[in-house]
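WARN no homologs supplied; continuing
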Amino acid sequence: CSISSPSASSNSRANETDMTTLIPTEDETMLRDAARGFLDDAAPVANLRANRDAGRSHDPDLWDEMVKMGWAGVLVGERDGGSDMGFAAANTLAEEMGRTLVASPFLSTAVIAATALRFDAQGAALAAIAAGERTYALAIDEGPKFAPDTANMTAAASGNGFRLSGHKTFVGEGTSASRLLVVARGDAGLTLFDIEADRAGIARHKLDLVDSRDHAHIDFDGVEATGEDVVGEVGGAMEVLSPALRAGQAALAAELTGLSAGAFGMTAAYLKERKQFGRHIGSFQALQHRAAHRWSEIEVTASTVINAGRVLDATPEEADLAVSLAKARATETANLAVREGVQMHGGIGMTDEYDMGFYMKRARVAGEWLGDYGYHAAVVARARGMVA
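OK structure emitted
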């Protein structure tokens, strides 16, 4: 299998994938089976409704169980108390969470924050993540679209430190996280800060989005930060943030792929149960063709997610193409899966009492976070020399 580029580039190894690398390893299969067994029992889709109705962002007891199983430390080295299973393993876990729409700090904390902090060798912070003592939110978006390198929030010099002023929006886990990774612009350029979420001058406001997850708008009013709060170098935010974003985008693509599979499974079961004109509607050839098309798209997308994990583990600095291809395909595949799922269920697919609608709502929000289809399609096009 080959994802080829017409011109030589630094992404060449990411663009050429041997078919055997797209087959899950024995360890990954065991991890997937264990995760699926646990989540099917402990975190069915009904939990999302329960969390929403209880007004909580996620089930803290469920997150504690994930921590005990080593999921919080999936990208944390063993010397810091993590399991250090790698990016492909993190994607496996994210995909299984997507199947049952699990709400948790996993993406923001165990994937994005852990990757940024390990690139800066932040041992104490990594140990706290692996132990479940810290959760993180990524505060980078300021406008309607993902554009981390255009942040205008200010980091004004103040004595030996900084004062952070501005706003961030679409902050996942924004009201519940204990710490924030914040990008701000100073005289030296963009700097990444790791600060307590309740530090003086920070105001968090819940955003009510359709997926019933924890999203926030956060205001910063002269928030004091010191050199110890800087992740990486002053003015070097993207050096540590870029690898973290790639890891997060790949894991989010995995979640969307799991979401697609979950929606497909629910729809296939419905086609076998619902009768019209005395026949199960799954026997209608038109619906069979549509179901087969969805299954094929999910399988192809799953291969791009596996490839992204492989490249991140082997050559993370060359993973832009592989990750953006996975995120773009996963976004489109999820939209197809939930759209077809709702249509095949008919009117009940849109009711709050039925779970299919939750898949559709999560697909819409997850497709926008960390770059929508257009953003990642443009990355792929540039990497392939299709645009300047």
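Confidence is low (pLDDT under 50) at residues 1-15.
OK
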